[in-house]
Design goal:
Blueprint: H1 4-14, E1 19-20, H2 23-28, E2 42-44, H3 49-61, E3 66-69, E4 86-89, E5 96-100, E6 105-108, H4 114-122, E7 126-127, H5 140-146, H6 153-156, E8 163-169, E9 175-179, H7 191-195, E10 204-211, E11 213-214, E12 218-226, H8 229-241, E13 248-253, H9 254-264, E14 276-284, H10 286-302, E15 307-310, H11 314-334, E16 337-344, H12 350-364, E17 370-373, E18 378-385, H13 390-409, H14 428-431, H15 434-447
Parallel strand pairs: 2-4, 3-4
Antiparallel strand pairs: 1-2, 5-6, 6-10, 7-11, 8-9, 8-10, 12-14, 12-15, 13-14, 13-17, 16-18, 17-18
Helix pairs in contact: 1-3, 8-10, 9-11, 12-13
This protein binds flavin-adenine dinucleotide.
Length: 463
Amino acid sequence: MLPPSFLESLSAIVGPEHLTTDAESRQAYGTDALKRGVPADAVVLPADTAQVSAVAMLCHKHSVPLVPRGAGTGYTGGAVPSQGGVVLSLERMNRILEIDEANLVAIVEPCVLTGDLQDAVERLGLFYPPDPASLRISSIGGNVAECAGGPRAFKYGTTKRYVLGLEAVLPSGEVIKTGGKVVKNVVGYDLTQLLVGSEGTLAIITRIILRLVPRPPVQATLRATFRDVEHAVAAVIQIVRARVVPAALELVDGESLDAVGRNLGVRTLAPEGTGALLLIEVDGVPAAVEEEASRVQEACLEAGATEVLHARDEEERQELWRVRRELSMSLRMVAALKLNHDVVVPKGRIPQLFQLVARIREEFRLRIPLFGHAGDGNIHVNIMVDPTNADEVARARAAERVLFEGVVALEGSISGEHGIGFSKAPFLALELTAGEIALMQRVKAAFDPTGILNPGKIFPPVH
Ligand SMILES: Cc1cc2nc3c(=O)[nH]c(=O)nc-3n(C[C@H](O)[C@H](O)[C@H](O)COP(=O)(O)OP(=O)(O)OC[C@H]3O[C@@H](n4cnc5c(N)ncnc54)[C@H](O)[C@@H]3O)c2cc1C
């Protein structure tokens, strides 16, 4: 527990109404979408950079763990204390400060919701492409700290491609500024990109300068169904061969489709015998979109699609996307515990990833629905577990390791977008050498010599 004098100093910084220590808040801020973690000892809600800096300085002086938190939707326990301490929630720093139309730049505080920024810039004919499925509930700061991705990453790239500059508070309380409004800047090391994806372990991000692009005038959405995932994956390769880069290229397997059907109370969402479907979106100027949509349709039919639907209006487009949007919720109905792994392999290796998962399913007798961003090889492998069944939990844990080892052997990565947090930390050494991990730890020590900022994350626990 934190000493009263420390809590009094915290209260003096943020104001008593923005410091909480009651059991309910400590518990609420001690969990995220992973649903595991240790309760905070105290939760502070600073109003601005100066208060964030003062809180960091205080924690640094007293060697108290400090955990930055955005909206708490992370899947790897990143915003959750691993050993108590102070959770610093940025939720009050939620303003869009500037949309600079001349320079195609937006400047935001960290806890602006991603979807709110998208709506604001789209009203001006601009576009902020990164679109995690959580965009209505997750913050830009959290997206930057995790380098979030989404369906559009295949064409537009992930969050890192849009971060031009940052203001951040070091664990000592020092405020730094990196990058700026310019798209070219090669002065010194690129600290902006070092902080992107650093999972709140190097600094607390308090302001973000984002690159915008013009909003594509039109888009076309297609849904192609297949007998099995092999044919769907063949279509992905065929689309790439046709030299089309869709804005989204999402794959949903038969098991996931059944789960959505059951959740929505619909007998079948696709033609009888559908084992996989692809949702494909192309965007751009009308003539190009029309031409690319027909090339996509041709590629799918050549790869054996049983049906290709083309949305005729916005209502039909939303209807086609509904299956994808309902997935997370629907899988929750399949089993109470979902070990959601966002593995990624080079696209050409997706068939081998599916073969690997098929082997794991059989060997460990587990339900593993698959869906994901087929365009960039980032497939969500959902190991569905009944948490009250100890034997099944043990099989699932063993299967995770086999999955990660297999993915690395396929030249892939154990996380494409959710980060490492504490849940994947034990597996870091499967992908990185001891020398690479040690180098990263020296970088961490340069930013955070006393190790107070988000301890217990990314690096394997020392026994
Ligand atoms: C239903 C659902 C769907 C999802 N879909 C996707 C998806 O499609 N793609 C994807 O990439 N992710 C997805 N996620 C995961 C999650 O939404 C993302 O990781 C998101 O970027 C987290 O943002 P957040 O604001 O909730 O951050 P939090 O969960 O609060 O924090 C995440 C990490 O960032 C750090 N952090 C947060 N804010 C700051 C800051 N200002 N400064 C420094 N560090 C900070 C925290 O310490 C923590 O390590 C999904 C989650 C859910 C629940």
